[in-house]
Amino acid sequence: MIANARMYSVSPQAGAAWRTLLMRVAQRAGVELAYVEHDAPAPIRALWERDDCACVLMCGYPFATAPVRYRLLAAPVPDLPRYGGLPRYFSEFIVRADSPRASLAQTFGKRLACMLPESNSGYNAPRRYLMEFGLVDGALYLPTEAATPTPQDVIDAVIAGRAEVGVVDSYVLDLLRLHVPGRIAALRTLAVTQSSPIPPLVASPGIDEEIAARLRGALLDAHRDPDCAEALATLRLARFAAVEPGDYRRLVRWAREADHAGVALTAATPVAQGLSSPLSEPSSRPSSQPLSEPLSEPLSKPLPHPSDPLA
Asked: Where is the composition biased (Low complexity) (predicted)?
């Protein structure tokens, strides 16, 4: 059985901390795990499709739409104030710091670096956010010439000028702000989406529930273990929280609503092209913010759902 945290191993320091943390969790659970590397460009879906995953981070949208039922273990809770002590995260629209664009509407019609449609933070959450602009039956952005299937690819494309704007997982950016500040010093954030349930740690469907329960308990107790303290601090995590499959179903609903409205992130002929003036911002318009500084609060108001404890 294996453990892996590729999704948030965004630097050597973060990768080492995840390995240390998950191996300690396995030790406390009395479960023998091997920490495997599965770095890009290896497709991350190939990792999730293994039948021996016992403690692996998985994007919430693929989890919710999988034809098989993965065993939920727990979800990370980032320690910055904007996460509110909850297992949630956001997507940030980023541009170069020297970009002349001061609002998201000013980027419409330009090239957007985004991830694959199976991604929540890199595709579906930003698509949902753009529906606040009244977008239907189209897209507001041009695609990049080359695909950008990972957050690092998105960041590279914006820094190199191959895209005028990109969308990236907020927790990825917070880890980079801590560990690799120089890499993103030339970027700033224009907008932040509503909150989403953060990617959970899962086990493959065939993993025995008794093993999953032991790992789940060790994760939920990790913040009380002095041997986990350094790794948690390195990863900007307060703790792990219990989550339920229903917490992730809204991601499916968001995607279906966007599909029904005919909304895409990019298209060869975006609707913003040919507009005499940019579309107006939503009423909760965010302010431009340097990307090198952690955001103490989300820059846009999350869209609550009455039955959703994570919103």
From this structure: 275-300
